[in-house]
Specification:
By secondary structure, the chain is α+β, with helices and mostly antiparallel strands. Helices cover 21% and strands 31% of the residues. It contains 13 helices and 43 strands. The strands form nine sheets. Strands 22-23-24-25-34-31-30-27-28 form a nine-stranded antiparallel beta sheet, covered by helices on one side. Strands 11, 13, 14, 17, 35 and 36 form a six-stranded antiparallel beta sheet that branches. Strand 24 and strand 25 form a beta hairpin. Helix 1 crosses helix 2 and helix 10 runs antiparallel to helix 12. It is globular and about 95 Å long.
């Protein structure tokens, strides 16, 4: 993988720290370090006061909140003491803390912003991990963070700012540009980790560009480093460079001692002009340089730093995925319920929930590198969002179900909702309250056209087995509902089970995966491998995990469920003090096989990986990442991904693809055709080398005890782009939403579609009410095939029949406004909905 046009390589990690300085008093007589008239060719070092505040890391968020207030007061004090001194700070959540706790100081900050001396950068609620959040989560960082800065601080933030995040996904330029950002400031990967220019155009897959600055060495610097760092801070041909002065990680702002030291260096003829400044002033100066027209262009992700962050604390990452997905689903369900019933759309609760999700994506929290205590707060914050989403979904669905005319229902009915805006076949599974001794009366489901759907009764998740689960595959309309009646009588025949996947009878996992033409895509059986991992939580300095310890031992294999809908084969294996249960779930008429893991893990410094050895030659690996789909090298190094990864290659000259869709995990490696993804990484919480680790202490270890992971395996002929994997991943991770209902009067039909988007190469990120436009609705789309695509938006309910062409990888947001007479108005807007 090339990292820049012309080709540049990656390097290894450097562990680097910054010393904190105490604050001492300084008199008001300190002079401003500024020259208004810079001689032609004179170099200028723009010195910005800055204090990086980890909202939660080796402390709880409540301590981070306290530190934000203390740091802001310190920065304001330095401004009073030092005319012209400027300070830059990100993170709208920090400003919210100040607004709530100290309104007077908040007004002081606003005054300094008005003067141009306090610069608001970033604007997002926090500086998040930039690999783990979903594309829509990044959109909400922009939407809610910039909205706060605009409304409360009077600032339209143009500078993206994530200096401490552990790598940056390839699709971020597309998202940033669509939200009105022009610049991006980062630090990691650092000079020894990836060869990059200090200043360059960073371009997304759709061609969107932001002007990117990589900070040299650190985001918080002591004045004593100024002379040494100044020489390395200037991009080629540029007479302007940026230098961040201050104390950080746990806040502190800029000390009076640091300011005094800068003043002493003011007259040094061997140094550039030292100027109190802001990032905006720096970028404005850069754009006036003759060298600006020849800046290089980087067209891919900015990686790598701390590859263990892709897998550290899998429980927290799984909870993040659930909260993100549930909130998006709840928004669309609640939208149409509020338009058809008396159900009130809970806008404030949704916004509050998104703020919780976005805060928990702070880079140390989302990366899994914070204290154990921090993850109690993450559990509560993300749990709050999940509770709001689930409660809202159930109440909205119940409201709609009660408006459907079910007077003719005899045995009971189930109201099923498809949250995705395209028609599809989907799984439903729920408890009906039926006991094993009265199931003979319910044999299938029927819809309004009396079409019969096979059902199967599955064992209860309770050991008592008093109530069984009903499961079925049903056809549902696009972003809409369908009512099914529980029926008795002769049961319909079920579809045949696919022979594409063969569950191993002698070993653990899957022994065969064939494409539809019968071509075998596996070189040998899919299985598990245990890897030694004594690295710290971040896995500093580790590029790959390949030191094999062994493989779990199969102790049981047998079919535990079999019927017209599903067949479940259970494999149980042991490893040292741990047990792994894998349910291999096959569905009639469905070619994808589900891998459902329940793992009781009791090991330390070990990693459990799922291994898929493909049989393809010339293998290539493609993965979904925020805002993009990218191809990476098959060199065995650990990489981040989201939702799916696909190994594509040749067999007998034809293209084949083996894809793995995942529900919770984010870390994989691929060595030639051997694909592995992390199930469990048992690292300690917040161990940072070279700091010493105390053994035999009471510190916590990650992902111990019961862990659940879920995947789906798909084998196909053709390239990965022909599989519409984004949509397939959405479908498999989004089963039908349901509520049970009975016979009652109502005015709504048994089936209705509210919104549909086509074709399948277009990904639908959000369908929600507009934030500030009354009776306005937002749909966000992205083209995912890499080709210009004519896209159709249709809704009889909203009176929408609109076509738009999306360019390759283009991300677009549309505002729909219903009209009292005639078609609804459809207007393209930014992520900010303006």
């Amino acid at each position: 993988m090339k990292t820049i046009e012309g080709g540049l390589s990656r390097r290894n990690f450097l562990i680097q720290g910054t010393a904190a300085l105490g604050t001492v008093a300084v008199s008001n007589s300190l002079a401003q370090v500024v020259h208004t008239n810079t001689p032609n060719g004179k170099r200028v070092l723009h010195i910005m006061g800055h204090s990086h505040i980890d909202a939660a890391w080796l402390w709880r968020w409540r301590d981070g909140s306290d530190e934000a207030l203390n740091t802001f007061r310190s920065a304001l004090n330095r401004m009073k003491e030092t005319p012209g001194f400027c300070y830059s700070h990100s993170s709208s959540m920090h400003y919210r803390w100040v607004k709530d706790a100290d309104p007077g100081m908040f007004e002081e900050i606003k005054q300094r912003i008005h003067e141009g001396r306090w610069e608001v950068v970033g604007g997002w609620p926090v500086e998040p991990d930039c690999n783990i959040p979903a594309t829509e989560s990044f959109a909400r960082h922009c939407l809610y963070g910039k909205e706060f800065c605009k409304n409360e601080l009077g600032v339209d933030v143009k500078i993206g700012f994530n200096p401490d995040s552990f790598g940056h996904a390839a699709g971020l330029p597309t998202i940033l540009k669509n939200a009105g950002y022009e610049y991006y400031v980062f630090m990691r990967p650092q000079e020894n980790e990836m060869d990059l220019p200090l200043l360059f155009w960073w371009e997304g897959p759709d061609g969107s560009r932001v002007l990117a600055l990589r900070l040299y060495r650190t985001y918080e610097n002591n004045a004593s480093h100024l002379a040494a760092d100044a020489e390395h801070s200037f991009a080629p041909g540029m007479n302007d460079a940026a230098f961040f002065l201050g104390v950080g990680d746990h806040g502190g702002a800029v000390t009076a001692a640091q300011i005094r030291e800068v003043l002493k260096m003011k007259g040094d003829p061997n140094l550039p002009e030292l100027r109190w400044s802001t990032l905006h002033e720096f970028f404005d100066a850069v754009k006036k340089s003759p060298a600006f027209s020849s800046l290089p262009v980087v067209r891919h992700e900015l990686q790598h730093h701390s590859r263990g962050c892709y897998s550290a604390y899998g429980e927290g990452k799984a909870l993040n995925r659930r909260a993100e997905r549930w909130m998006v689903e709840a928004e669309s369900i609640s939208l149409f319920s509020s338009l058809t019933t008396a159900h009130q759309h809970p806008h404030k609760e949704f916004v509050d929930s998104w703020w919780k999700i976005l805060f928990c994506q702070f880079h140390d929290m989302g990366a899994g590198t914070a204290l154990y205590a921090d993850y109690q707060d993450v559990r509560d914050g993300l749990g709050f969002a999940c509770e709001v989403a689930q409660t809202t979904k159930v109440r909205a669905l119940e409201s709609m179900a009660r408006q459907v005319d079910t007077t003719k229902v005899v045995q009971g009915a189930v109201f099923l909702w498809n949250p995705l805006p395209w028609p599809r076949k989907t799984l439903v599974e729920y408890y009906t309250g039926r006991r094993p001794d009265n199931l003979e009366f319910i044999t299938h489901l029927t819809d309004k056209d009396q079409k019969k759907y096979p059902i199967q009764w599955l064992a209860s998740e309770s050991m008592t087995q008093q109530h069984l689960r009903l499961t079925a595959w049903v056809d549902l309309p696009a972003c809409g509902y369908k009512l099914f009646e529980l029926a008795h009588g002769p049961a319909p025949d079920g579809a045949a089970f696919s022979n594409a996947i063969t569950v191993s009878k002698t070993g653990f996992g899957i022994s065969s995966a064939k494409a539809e033409d019968g071509t075998e895509l596996l070189a040998r059986s899919i299985g598990l491998v245990v890897i030694a991992d004594s690295s710290d939580t971040w896995a500093h300095g580790v590029n790959e995990f390949r030191q094999e310890m062994g493989r779990p031992t199969l102790v049981y294999a047998g079919v535990v469920e079999e019927g017209p809908v599903t067949r479940i084969t259970r494999h149980r294996a042991t490893w040292m003090e741990s047990e792994i249960i894998l349910d291999l779930v096959e569905y009639a008429g469905i070619e994808a096989v589900e891998l459902r893991f329940v793992i009781n893990w009791n090991q330390h410094e070990q990693m459990l990986k799922l291994e898929i050895p493909t049989a393809m030659v010339q293998p290539r690996i493609f993965t979904k990442v925020p805002g993009a789909v990218i191809e990476r090298s098959v060199n065995g190094e650990e990489e981040p991904y989201q939702d799916w990864a696909a190994v594509q290659g040749k067999i007998n000259g034809n293209d084949y693809t083996l894809a793995l869709i995942n529900e919770q995990t984010y870390s994989y490696d691929c060595l030639d055709g051997l694909f592995r993804t992390v199930l469990i990484r048992s690292a300690p919480f917040a161990r940072h080398r070279p700091d010493k680790t105390v053994y035999f202490d009471a510190n916590a270890w990650q992902d111990q005890g019961r862990q659940e992971r879920r995947f789906w395996l798909v084998a196909r002929k053709g390239t990965h782009s022909q599989l519409a994997l984004d949509r397939l991943a959405e479908e498999l991770q989004s089963p039908a939403e349901y509520v049970m209902t009975s016979a009652h009067a109502g005015h709504m039909e048994w089936e209705q579609s509210f919104f549909e988007v086509s074709p399948s190469s277009v990904w639908v990120l959000a369908l929600k009410p507009a934030e500030s436009v009354k009776d306005g609705y937002i749909v966000r789309l992205q083209e995912r095939s890499g080709t210009a695509t004519k896209t159709s938006l249709k809704s009889t309910f909203l009176n929408v029949d609109h076509s738009v062409t999306l360019g390759p990888w283009e991300l677009k947001t549309f505002l729909i406004q219903r009209s009292a007479s005639g078609p609804a108005k459809v207007k393209e807007v930014s992520i900010l909905e303006v």
